[in-house]
Amino acid sequence: MPYHRAIALFAASFFLGTAVAQHPQPAPAPPLPNAVELLQRSLASERKLAAEQERYECRITDENVMTDNKGRVKKTLTEVKDQFYVNGIPIERLLKKNGKDLSPGEVKKQDARVMKETLKYSNQKTAKKEDDKQAQQMVSFMEAMMLANGHRERVNGRSVLFYDIVPNPKFQAKSIYQRMAQALLGKVSIDEKSGEMIDVDVHSVADLKLAGGLLANIHKGFWIHAHNQLQPDGIWLNDLAEGSGDARAALFFHPYFRFKETTDGCHLYSTSAAQSGPAQVLKSK
After folding, report:
1. Alpha-carbon span 20 to 241, nearest angstrom
2. How many secondary structure helices (H) and strands (E) does the chain include?
3. For the chain, what is the radius of gyration of the CA atoms?
C-alpha cells in the first residue's frame, strides 16, 4: 500500500472511530499482465489442453468473395470442411465446394492428404516442431506491437482484459510478421486466467510492401476480425474469422476481396479404445 494512503487511512480510523471498520476500503486491483506474460499463459494453456482438444471435430464454412472497386461481386468460392486436431495441430478435410459434393477423384485426393497429415503429426516431435514454429511467429508478431489503455472487466463470471493494439514505435521490424504488425491498429479482449484471445479486430493504417512488393502488397484499410469461444470443458475454439481489403499475394492480384469463416457443429467424441483378447497379426493374401 502507498505510504500516503496508509497515513490517510490511519487518520480516518482515529477520528471516525469504527467507521473504517464498518466501511472497509476495497483492495487495489492487481496490475494488468504484460503482452509477453499473456502469450506465455496462452501457450501453456493450449499445450495443457491439447489432448482434450483432440476430442473435438467441427464443421467449417469458408466464403471468399472477389469484387471490383465498387463492391460488385466478380467471383465467389464457398467450401465446407471438417476439422479435427492431432497433437494440437488442426487438420481439415474438404467436403463440398460451391455447394457441390466432391468428385470421386477429389475425395480420393482429400483422403490421401488427410491421412498423410494425420500420420505426420501423430509423431509428437513433428507436431511439437510445428507448434514451436507457430509460437515463435506469434512471439515475433507481438514484439512489434504494444497493448495500450488496458482495463479489466468481469464478463460471464470471468476476468477479461481489454486493450488497444498499437505499433511499438521503438521496435525495429525485421521479419514479415513484424512489419505487418507495425501497420496494424485495433482492439483485443483476452481471458485473463488462460491468456487466450477472445476477440480481436485490427485494420492496417498504412500501405505495406513485402519484399519490395514481389511477395505481397497490403493496402491501407485491410481489416481482420476473429473470435474464439470457450467450451464447457475449458477448451477455446475459433468460431469466426472474417476480413476484407485490397491486397496482392505474389503474382496473383486480388484487388478487392472479403472472406468469412464460421465454425459450428462442434461435437465431442471419444478416442479411447480397449483391446479385447490377444493381439493378432493380419497377413495379406
Report:
1. 51
2. 7, 13
3. 25
Taking the alpha carbons at both ends of the chain, their separation in whole angstroms is 80
Q: Which three cell numbers stand for residue 239?
A: 468460431
Model-wide pTM > 0.70: yes
Helix/strand/coil for 213: helix
Helix, coil or strand: residue 281 = coil
pLDDT tens, per residue, the chain with 285 residues: 333 333 232 222 222 333 333 445 556 778 888 777 887 888 788 777 777 888 889 999 999 988 877 778 888 999 999 999 999 899 999 999 999 999 999 999 999 999 999 999 999 999 999 988 888 887 777 778 888 999 999 999 999 999 999 988 888 887 777 877 888 899 999 999 999 999 999 998 877 766 554 445 677 778 899 999 998 888 889 999 999 876 554 444 456 778 899 998 788 875 443 333 343 333 333
**Contact call for residues 88 and 53 (beta carbons, < 8 A):** yes
Strands of the chain (E only): list them: 56-67, 73-86, 89-97, 100-101, 145-155, 158-167, 184-191, 197-204, 208-210, 216-218, 223-230, 236-249, 252-268
* Cβ-based neighbours of 106, under 8 Å, separated by 6 or more: 94
Spatial distance between the Cα atoms of 182 and 203, rounded to a whole number of angstroms: 11
The vertex-250 CA angle with 168 and 173, nearest 5°, equals: 15
**212 DSSP assignment:** G
Residue 266 phi/psi, 5° resolution? -70, 135
Q: Please answer whether residues 166 and 146 qualify as being in contact, where contact means their C-beta atoms are separated by less than 8 angstroms.
A: yes
Residues 225, 227, 233: CA angle, nearest 5 degrees: 170
